[in-house]
Amino acid sequence: MPVATGNSQILTEEHVIEGFHKFLQTALAQAKAEKLLDADTLASAEADLMVSGPALCLFFGALRSTTEPPSVPLPRSRSDKSLEPARLSKDTCPPAFLPFLQVWASSVPAIQKLPSQHQHDLARIICNLNPLSQPVYSGLGGIAADLRAVAIEISQRRTFQERYQADLQAALDAGQLGRGTRRGSSATAHFVPPPISYLDRAPSLKAESALTIIRETLFAALADVITQTPSLARALQTDPPRAYFSSVALAILEVALTSLTPEGGVRGVLGRELTLDDCPPPLKPLMMELAALGREAQTYATEDDEDAMRLVGEGRDIPEPRMERVRKVLESGVGYAQGDENGDEGRRSVEGRAVQFSTRVNRLALTMTGLPAFRSYAKDVFDVLGSLG
Length: 389
Known about the structure:
The chain is an all-alpha fold. It has 15 helices and four strands.
């Protein structure tokens, strides 16, 4: 395999962003052609599409990479007058994007080694579709989790959110001219940052009451999170969308750990409780996922305690608890998991369960922050976070 060479000058963030979105449009169009995504899904711009879209881009990029270590040739920017296209590699990557590139590069060999049918299954898993091959190759879930973890972080960037509707529209328009559409027109992508929620209609009184309990409970947890995590207060000045999203994800984790009843309800502020039975149907999937996260977190805590007792008995060091690793990934991003590959039992491996758990929390945060009840209070949330910092 060729060695990544070329100009080692650090690329500008704008050049990388421009190239990524060109690749993203191609990836979405290819996914539509391969029936991984249909036109209705692209047009709806549902929240998970903010994850599966860039994850597909990373997947197709891995298939195209031909160098060692992995790198990507970028389309020429509008201001680029050089004869050869720039190449995104570990030597030319802007510092802000280096954690993303490192995680992506670590997945490239595994993706390229897969048989073609398993590569197709991986693309289906990224799009939340069932794999076709039986038995299912066991390594696909970990690879998909890595790509989706990076994709979630990309989706948090305001530059991504501002451009994503154009990417979706380009994919919808691809191949449509004169092919069964009146005057060559296509569907329209309905994407507004932050992501549109499935609760677009005015909520009923029951739904509004449930939303209020959930919102107030999360806002109370946000206050705890920001006071306990000074780095988020600093990030509000440099990258507000990222800091807000990380704070919401950490608040969701806090609620899952401390505010759930054994039956899966939420104990709100001032003693108010929201049970699953009282929750309106559109909100039940969120409540069920929150309860599932709480149960899994408790399982992790029990396993960590048992492992700690065993290791103490063997005279060995006790590794960092899994929930602490989850908090660090939510706070610092998936690049944190790349930090110490020699840690005990691969504790910072991007293939670990801590990163997969963090991805689930982040996905729930994407949906939560898309609810109208949260969008309408976004400014107030930022004001509160800023004052606490």
